[in-house]
């Protein structure tokens, strides 16, 4: 039996889409072929503990097999996940994948830091100039609120209120990106990644209805955010979504100081870029 914890399993359940009974885009035949590479007959009765769907067989697998085997299989399944998204030109949740790889590495017993983790460490180690609020693409009245929230985020960090830090950072980033979009509406709405209505022959949606993910992607496309800032801004967005208690409970998410500092660094990088101060 593997030592995969309940909260760790939730990450794989989410990434692999297991709530529907499926696992990624595997057919029954491809699922069996995948496991045969590891000498496993996943369709055998041994893995029918909870039922015969692919998701139920995977749950039975990770509960009945040893750590090293489970970790090795899950690591390769994460490779399949990333490859599928990349080959279809779709973005994937790099923050969740990074955490899931850490869990797989723990099972295998590897001490090597994953590529995603190394990139995270490097990003955290960079010295970023704290942006000057008055140079951000927002009005003076909104700027005052942003400055107050920026201060509050640092107070919350010192107080150990890490979830509050994440919520403050997410709200600031969304407000400034929306301000940038409203200052250059044509530039944003004509971008390839701009969200469009299903009706009206693909007319761009009103900027006020854009989600944070869409603002981040388009800001990167039009050159206002660098690739690394976009990557970690999406991580901040993902964490900010835990403002819904049920979502936090379902994912077993508990923010720590590292998470809070990463979000602050992502915010600093984003604001510096939008203020034209990123080196």
What does this structure look like?
The chain has 13 helices and no strands. Helix 8 crosses helix 10. The protein is elongated, with a radius of gyration of 21 Å. The longest helix has 22 residues, at 162-183. It has 279 residues and is mostly helical.
Put the structure in a nutshell.
62% of the residues lie in helices and 0% in strands. It has helices at residues 6-16, 28-36, 54-64, 67-87, 94-108, 115-125, 140-159, 162-183, 185-189, 212-221, 227-240, 245-251, 257-274.
Helicity range = 55-70%
| Helix-strand category | mainly alpha
**Content of β-strand:** under 5%
Low-confidence stretches: none
**Shape designation:** elongated
Indicate the topology.
Elements: H1 6-16, H2 28-36, H3 54-64, H4 67-87, H5 94-108, H6 115-125, H7 140-159, H8 162-183, H9 185-189, H10 212-221, H11 227-240, H12 245-251, H13 257-274
Helix pairs in contact: 1-5, 4-5, 7-8, 8-10, 8-11, 8-13, 10-11, 11-13
Please give a handful of descriptors for the protein shown.
single chain; 279 residues; mainly alpha; 62% helix; 0% strand
């Amino acid at each position: 039996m593997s030592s995969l914890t309940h909260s760790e399993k939730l990450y794989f359940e989410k990434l692999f889409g297991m709530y529907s009974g499926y696992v990624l885009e595997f057919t029954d035949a491809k699922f069996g072929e995948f496991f045969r590479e590891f000498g496993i007959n996943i369709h055998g009765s041994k893995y029918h503990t909870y039922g015969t769907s692919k998701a139920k067989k995977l749950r039975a697998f990770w509960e009945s097999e040893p750590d090293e085997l489970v970790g090795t299989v899950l690591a390769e399944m994460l490779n399949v996940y990333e490859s599928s998204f990349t080959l279809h030109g779709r973005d994937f949740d790099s923050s969740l994948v990074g955490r899931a790889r850490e869990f797989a590495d723990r099972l295998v017993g590897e001490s090597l830091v994953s590529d995603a983790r190394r990139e995270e460490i490097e990003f955290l180690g960079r010295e970023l100039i704290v942006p000057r609020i008055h140079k951000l693409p927002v009005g003076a009245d909104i700027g005052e609120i942003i400055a107050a929230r920026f201060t509050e985020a640092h107070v919350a960090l010192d107080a150990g209120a890490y979830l509050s830090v994440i919520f403050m950072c997410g709200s600031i980033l969304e407000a400034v990106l929306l301000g940038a979009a409203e200052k250059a509406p044509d530039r944003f709405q004509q971008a390839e990644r701009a969200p469009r209505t299903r009706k009206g022959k693909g007319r761009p949606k009103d900027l006020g209805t854009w989600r944070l993910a869409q603002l981040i992607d388009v800001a990167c496309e039009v050159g206002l955010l660098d690739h690394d800032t976009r990557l970690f801004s999406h991580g901040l967005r993902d964490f900010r979504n835990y403002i819904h208690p049920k979502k936090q409970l379902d994912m077993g998410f508990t923010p720590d100081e590292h998470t809070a500092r990463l979000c602050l660094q992502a915010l600093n990088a984003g604001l510096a870029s939008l203020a034209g101060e990123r080196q």
